[in-house]
Amino acid sequence: MIRFQADADLSHDIVLAVRRREPTIDFASALEGGIVGLRDPEVLEIAAQQQRILITHDRRTIPGHFRDLLDAGKSSPGVFIVSQFESIAAVVEALVMVWAASEPADWRYQIRHLPSFSPHSFSR
Predict the structure, then answer these.
(1) 61 CA to centre of own chain
(2) What b-and-e string marks burial along 66-80, b requiring 16 or more CB atoms within 10 Å of the CB?
(3) Is 45 helix (H, G, I), strand (E, B) or coil?
(4) What is the CATH number of the domain that holds 13?
(5) Are the beta carbons of 54 and 80 closer than 8 angstroms?
(6) Which residue range(s) make up the domain with 28?
(7) Could you tell me the strand order of the sheet in which 26-28 lies?
(8) For labeling, which of 15, 62, 64, 103 is most exposed (least CB within 10 Å)?
(9) Confidence at 124, pLDDT banded by 50, 70, 90
(10) Measured between alpha carbons, how far is 52 from 28 in angstroms, rounded to an integer?
(11) Per-residue pLDDT averaged across 93-115, rounded?
(12) Which residues make beta-bridge pairs with 54?
């Protein structure tokens, strides 16, 4: 079953709204996940160890750290980047859809933008 981890920068309203919409979703807040105050590489490592897709607003630094993680040969259950300007309702619907209609392996090693699901391109 898909599990989510909120990054410390993610609006807590999103976590609360997802839980209200579908109470059985396993969506850890940053505080519950023990990642508040940690650096991005540590956050990605913890999410990977716990097999949780990281949900973040951080489109500036997380993609580079994600690529570094993969380049180091490590695993990741994936990352979803959410625009701070996106409606909470659209994000909630996208997350519930991911949870209900896919498997963890569908998102492994991927970084996607929600709610569009467009891939993040890495330039070399």
Answers:
(1) 14
(2) beebbeeeeebbbbb
(3) helix
(4) 3.40.50
(5) yes
(6) 3-119
(7) 26-28, 3-6, 53-56, 79-82, 111-114, 118-119
(8) 103
(9) very low
(10) 9
(11) 96
(12) 5, 79
Q: Is residue 52 part of a domain?
A: yes
Segment 66-83 mean pLDDT:
96
Confirm whether 51 is domain-assigned: yes
Peptide bond into 115 cis (omega under 30): yes
The radius of gyration computed from the CA coordinates of the chain, to the nearest angstrom, equals: 13
Residue 102 lies in a domain: yes
Within a domain: residue 124? no
pLDDT band at 31 (very low <50, low <70, confident <90, very high): very high
The residue with tokens 């097999």 is 51
User: Residue 117 pLDDT more than 90?
Assistant: no
Quickly state the pLDDT bin for 121 (edges 50, 70, 90): low
- Total domains in the chain come to 1
Closest CA to 120 of 48, 63, 70: 63
